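User: I'm curious whether this sequence folds into something compact or stays loose and floppy. Could you predict its structure so I can see for myself?
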Amino acid sequence: MERNITPADLQSRLTAGPGITLLDVRRREDRAEDPVAITGASWHDPTAIEGWSGELDPAREIVVYCVHGGPVSRSVMDTLHAKGLNARLIEGGLEAWKDYGGATEPAK
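Assistant: Here's the prediction. I'll summarize afterward.
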């Protein structure tokens, strides 16, 4: 499976129905600076991955994103892969998703 997913591909997968666990893994300060999230995403602190990664369903596809799809989401994705989870990241992160016109909501 591809390690990246484009905003367009993610949108079509989300429209097709459930099956993706969508994780906002931006650093706390990045979330404070831009307090929106992709609709349906839950935030997980990337510095605490050892504490929350065991709660993820290994049967579901996991899509992670940070601000630009760079080192933060790549590190989280790599850690999840090492734990045997099927994780991908959004190419270009939240910024690419917003540029694409993807739905967002206030971050929770």
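Summary: The two ends are 30 Å apart (CA to CA). The chain is about 35% helix and 20% strand.
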